[in-house]
Design a protein that fits this description.
Layout: H1 8-14, E1 20-25, H2 31-44, E2 52-56, H3 59-71, E3 81-84, H4 85-98, H5 114-127, H6 138-147, H7 154-169, E4 172-173, H8 175-180, E5 191-192, H9 200-216, H10 221-232, H11 236-243, E6 248-251, H12 259-268, E7 274-279, H13 294-297, E8 305-310, E9 312-313, H14 318-328, E10 340-341, E11 348-354, H15 357-374, E12 383-387, H16 393-402, E13 407-409, H17 419-439, H18 444-458, H19 467-470, H20 484-491, H21 494-497, H22 500-509, H23 520-530, H24 533-538, H25 542-559, H26 565-580, E14 593-597, E15 606-611, E16 624-627, E17 630-633, H27 638-649, E18 652-661, H28 675-678, H29 682-688, H30 690-697, H31 703-706, H32 709-718, H33 721-735
Parallel strand pairs: 1-7, 1-8, 2-3, 2-6, 4-5, 6-7, 9-10, 11-18, 12-14, 12-15, 13-14, 15-18
Antiparallel strand pairs: 16-17
Length: 736
């Protein structure tokens, strides 16, 4: 946006003379330009550029802010300190070390993985080199000294490092670290984390990791922030030396700060003449990593803070702004804002219903292909598919590959490389190999592939079958008169075959060559049902259960398009070749379609946005727990999920497409639409369900027709009864 077209709200913030300010800025409100213009005014009125600090979260945001300063001709803009939290903390540490206020960290090496440091710590403890002698229980001592003696699983090491960082983000600590390692001046900022007896070995391992980390001078990402805050807490003298140069401080995306970042800012701002924090509690979507929007909203109750609002959206067309406003206002725990759209376009919003995820993916791929035909490059029209979970990507990725549409997935990885699709593909490959073996068309190379594929299937899900047990059938594979289930019954040891999970697998192999399972989809469904796949993979991991539901349903839809495994495997191999040709990459040209999670889309915008899988267990996200062998869907944090929905739809600069999958015949995922569809205002719903709209409004002269239960039952079956009742209520009012 041009600095010449500022709103009164923006001008008020730019001209704010001094003191602290809290700014509530809606999505697309031009806050970067506004804050940059305020910095320009400060410099023009005599402030030194080096005395100005602008803090944000990512390197990309730093780059964008620097470019904005240049675009508005901010004098000496290169001298303004535009830093991430991490670089700000690193600068404080270096200055404190230069002045000899604290000991340096000569081994501050980011290339050294936390996992490696954690392993060194535990080995040092086992050798007795570590001065750590709390009253460890016999269970904890045995675990650390005996169970981990020969091998320390990397999963356990990662768990220790991640848990340690998680505690530090939230200013929590173990009792030992709080009392023995943290400086006395800083202890009152921390709270002791209570560990259960079951977690006592985790607590001890965290203590050991922290002792070794400090002794070796190693800092991981979170340590840089916490160590800087701890150093600043030691004395006002240190704070003055490290931070007094910053007279004017601005912090962007303040709704996303966690307790450790908030503490760092509080200590660093002691000598500032003005502090401006900018954020939007409606876009607070990172609670899972410790972010707390209360650090923003609590400023409303503090003295000395002037409140500003930026409520005009320059990014989205009118329909998108209207939809966003009507959705987010349902949240109760928020600072009230009025969203206004200033873009002189209505824009396009579509809300579609599909019977399966394949149909949904077909529609998205087809529309994307048409858009690309009319626009030469992504500079003409940028497109993004934003998902609540990466498990929603598979079916869409399949269709894009079929149409050879270039795309990139943030974080990488192709659909057929993920756990569930890879397991099903191995199953189908195994049946093809078995047919070739029984027909006598087998060679030494296929013999090895046969055993390797069987090993993958035998532990999909994990049945704890060793490679030695699985390969006991290897010498007999050449006998094509004996079927696979007979080989397994004959050669696998009885103690393995008696285990329930292995017995289920053998039962499946007894039926897998029957005519009733000849089609790939039927085989996949039978395997999932007969081996209790969903429960087995998701056991103890409710997040994984919901992901697994999506992956299974997606692969079933894909498999349903092929009469046999040969055709399906050939198509997957073709897609592999397409990927290998360079069609998909992290470094694609701007013509590629972006596919990423909504959480990673924050701060970005595209012309066309697609948000698929607006379903009851997917978006809003609901955890699935297993109770006595049955899946139980948990409650959703609707306000948090609605904020995520708001972030997704406000990425759209031209058009927005929302869709849900409603299939009453599916046993793998909810046949109900998302609440975020059902709670839309009546005008949106009438546009959404045109066939119900026609049926109801044509019957206005005969209200008794509307009251019949048939339509209500159909609506209930299809999963949008609440929306249907709204439409019917309006129709009855107008007909009476």
């Amino acid at each position: 946006m041009s600095i010449l077209n500022l709103t009164d709200e923006q001008l008020a913030l730019i001209q704010h003379e001094g003191g602290n300010a809290v700014v509530f800025a809606i999505a697309g409100s031009g806050k970067t330009t506004t804050v940059a213009a305020r910095i320009k005014r400060l410099i023009n009125e005599g402030a030194m550029p080096a005395e100005i600090l602008a803090v944000t979260f990512t390197n990309e945001a730093v780059k964008q802010f620097g470019e904005t300063l240049q675009e508005i001709d901010c004098p000496s803009c290169a001298e303004v300190n535009v830093l991430t939290f991490h670089k700000m903390a690193g600068k404080i540490l270096r200055k404190a070390e230069e002045y000899g206020l604290v000991a340096g960290h000569p081994n501050d090496d980011r290339k050294k993985a936390g996992r490696q440091v954690a392993e060194e710590a535990i080995r040092s403890f086992q050798r007795g080199d570590l001065s750590y002698k709390p009253n460890l229980s016999l269970h904890v001592s045995k675990f650390l000294l005996e169970k981990l003696e020969n091998h320390i699983p990397w999963e356990f090491l990662d768990q220790i490092v991640a848990k340690s960082s998680e505690l530090k983000q939230s200013l929590l600590s173990t009792r030992y670290i709080l009392n023995d390692l943290i400086a006395p001046e800083a202890r009152h900022y921390f709270m002791e984390k209570q560990f259960s007896l079951r977690e006592s070995h985790i607590e001890a391992a965290i203590d050991i990791y922290e002792i070794h980390r400090r002794s070796q001078g190693f800092r991981d990402y979170q340590d840089v922030i916490n160590d800087a805050a701890e150093i600043l807490s030691l004395s006002a003298e240190i704070r003055e030396i490290a931070c007094s140069d910053y007279k004017h401080i601005t912090v962007d995306e303040f709704q996303d700060v966690d307790p450790s970042q908030n503490l760092l800012l509080e200590l660093a701002c002691e000598f500032a003449e003005s502090i401006v924090v900018v954020g939007d509690d409606d876009q607070s979507i990172y609670q899972w990593r410790g972010a707390d929007a209360e650090f923003l909203t609590e400023k409303l109750d503090m003295g000395g803070w002037t409140v500003f609002t930026l409520q005009s959206n320059f990014r989205c067309p009118a329909k998108v702004v209207s939809l966003a406003a009507q959705s987010i206002r349902i949240n109760q725990d928020r600072f009230p804002k009025t969203l206004r759209g200033l873009k002189p376009r209505l824009g396009n919003v579509s809300i579609d219903l599909f019977m399966n995820r394949g149909e949904q993916a077909d529609k998205i791929a087809s529309e994307v292909k048409d858009i690309r035909k009319t626009r030469e490059t992504q500079q003409d029209c940028s497109i993004a598919i934003l998902v609540r979970s990466k498990a929603s990507i598979s079916s869409i990725e399949q269709r894009l590959l079929e149409h050879e549409i270039p795309y990139r997935i943030l974080g990488g990885g192709f659909w057929y490389e993920r756990k569930i699709p890879r397991g099903f593909l191995n199953l189908l490959l195994m049946r093809r190999l078995e047919r070739r073996r029984l027909s006598g068309h087998f060679n030494e190379k296929l013999h090895k592939v046969y055993i390797d594929t069987l090993q993958h299937i035998a532990n999909f899900p994990n049945r704890f079958l060793s490679g030695r047990v699985i390969s006991t059938i290897a010498p007999s594979i050449g006998d094509n008169s004996v079927h696979l289930p007979d080989l397994l019954h004959r050669h696998w040891p009885e103690y393995s075959r008696k285990r329930e999970a292995v017995s289920d697998l053998l039962g499946f192999f007894d039926t897998w060559m029957t005519d009733s399972l000849s089609r790939p989809r039927d085989l996949i469904k039978a395997y999932a049902d007969m081996t209790n796949l969903l429960e087995a993979i998701s056991s103890g991991d409710s997040e994984g259960a919901t992901e697994t539901v999506l992956e299974i349903s997606s692969f079933e839809d894909f498999a349903g398009r092929f009469p046999g495994e040969d055709q399906l495997i050939d198509e997957v191999n073709r897609q592999r070749r397409v990927n290998q040709s360079g069609l998909t990459s992290q470094d694609l040209s701007p013509s590629a379609i972006d596919i990423q999670t909504i959480h990673s889309s924050k701060g970005l915008a595209w012309d066309c946005i697609y948000v698929p899988d607006l379903n009851y267990t997917v978006f809003p996200w609901r955890k699935i727990a297993w109770i006595k062998g049955c899946p139980v869907v948990g409650a959703a944090d609707l306000e948090a999920e609605r904020r995520l929905f708001y972030v997704a739809i406000t990425r759209a600069k031209e058009s927005l497409s929302l869709s849900s999958v409603v299939n009453p015949d599916s046993t793998h995922y909810s046949n109900r639409e998302s609440e975020f569809i059902g709670e839309l205002p009546i005008d949106w719903l009438c546009e959404r369900w045109g066939f119900f709209d026609d049926a109801i409004f044509r019957a206005q002269d005969h209200p008794e027709v509307i009251k019949k239960m048939e339509l209500e039952q159909i609506a209930d079956q299809l999963g949008f009864l609440p929306a249907f009742l709204k439409i019917r209520e309006k129709a009855l009012e107008e007909s009476s």
